Structures are given as C-alpha cells and as structure tokens.
TrEMBL record:
Record-linked PROSITE patterns: HTH_CROC1
HTH cro/C1-type domain boundaries: 40-83
Keyword Transcription regulation: yes
Source organism superkingdom: Bacteria
GO terms, molecular function: DNA binding
Lineage: Bacteria, Pseudomonadati, Pseudomonadota, Gammaproteobacteria, Enterobacterales
UniProt name for this protein: Helix-turn-helix domain-containing protein
Organism of this sequence: Pectobacterium parvum
Keyword Transcription regulation: yes
Keywords linked to the UniProt accession: DNA-binding, Transcription, Transcription regulation
C-alpha cells in the first residue's frame, strides 16, 4: 500500500524508507519468535509438569502440546508468549 502511495506522490521517500524498515524489523522479530520442539519439552521438563498440565496452564489442548513437542506444529500467539514467560521467569510467574 505504501508503494502505491509513494508512486502517487502522497508518501515521501522518507515515509517509504521508514515503513520498509519497520516491516523488516517486524519480520525479524516474528522469525525469532518461534519455539521449536526441544524448547517446549525443556520448559515442561524443567518445571516438572506433564503435557496435560502444561496444556491446562496455557489453556490449550494436550494434543497441541504433543504436536509442539513432536515438531508437527509450533506454538503461536498467546501460547507462545506464555511459554516464553515460563522459559524466562519460571512457572510461578504466571500462576
């Protein structure tokens, strides 16, 4: 969209560059914001909880946690953010 505005003369070169930088930074953050199977399992094992218990704590299904730990899928959204908090600060930080 910004490219069309730039082409039409309603957005400056500075605006275009600024937005492109913001988009690039956002994409870097999103790519870093993934959690692989080994990290999910390590968090759960460190906290000494079962897959079902972790699922209940983060309001997800046990099946989702199993898929994450097998690498079939990865946590996203709120589940990812909660797992990151648990990883950094421990389970007590969210209980």
């Amino acid at each position: 969209m910004i490219q069309r505005q730039h082409a039409a003369g309603t957005a400056s070169d500075v605006d275009l560059d600024a937005i492109n930088r913001l988009v690039a930074e956002s994409q870097k953050t999103e790519s870093r914001a993934s959690m692989d199977a080994s990290r999910v399992r390590a968090i759960r094992e460190r906290e000494k909880i079962s897959q079902s218990q972790l699922a209940g704590i983060i309001n997800m299904s046990a099946n989702s946690v199993q898929k994450w730990e097998r690498g079939v899928s990865a946590p996203t959204g709120a589940a990812l953010r909660i797992l990151e908090v648990i990883e950094r600060k421990g389970l007590n930080a969210i209980l």
